[in-house]
Amino acid sequence: MNPEPFLQIDRIIHEKGRLAIMSMLAASPELSFTELRDTLGMTDGNVTTHIRTLQEAGYLSVTKSFQNNRPLTTCALTPAGKRAFTHYINLLERIIQQNKPK
């Protein structure tokens, strides 16, 4: 078994909460903070922390606006985030293929 793919796993994406956020955003052009929080069953603080980490890594953009006079925070993957997520998924596929029984 080649350990190299395991060493290349992006630790920022690999954490369960951040992986869930990245997966949801990969399937949608953008999602609101509330949609992410409610779908994933996380607390406001938990979602905020994960979003901040992903944003600092350059994987996520955050837009703040108003809708019906209420604050609205939306998130979307950046081009770098899309590339990183695609690389992460491809790497997982390589690891699975490498360890599949023959």
Can you give a write-up of this model?
With 102 residues, the chain is of the alpha+beta class. It has a single domain (4-96), classed as Winged helix-like DNA-binding domain superfamily/Winged helix DNA-binding domain (Arc Repressor Mutant, subunit A). 59% of the residues lie in helices and 18% in strands. It has helices spanning 4-7, 11-14, 16-26, 33-40, 44-56, 79-98; strands at residues 31-32, 60-67, 70-77. The protein has a 3-stranded antiparallel β-sheet with strand order 1-3-2. A hairpin with a 2-residue loop joins strand 2 and strand 3 (70-77). The longest helix has 20 residues, at 79-98. It starts with a helix and ends with a helix.
Task: Provide the β-strand percentage band.
Answer: 15-25%
Strand order of the largest sheet: 1-3-2
User: What is the molecular shape?
Assistant: elongated
Number of strands: 3
CATH third-level topology: Arc Repressor Mutant, subunit A
Low-confidence stretches: none
Superfamily (CATH H level) name = Winged helix-like DNA-binding domain superfamily/Winged helix DNA-binding domain
End-to-end CA span: 13 Å
Compute the number of helices: 6
Domain module tally? 1
SSE order: HHHEHHEEH
Helix content: 55-70%
Mean pLDDT: 94
The largest pleated sheet is described as:
3 strands, antiparallel
Query: What's the CATH first level?
Result: Mainly Alpha
Rg is 16 Å
CATH architecture: Orthogonal Bundle
> Which class of secondary structure composition applies to the elements?
alpha+beta
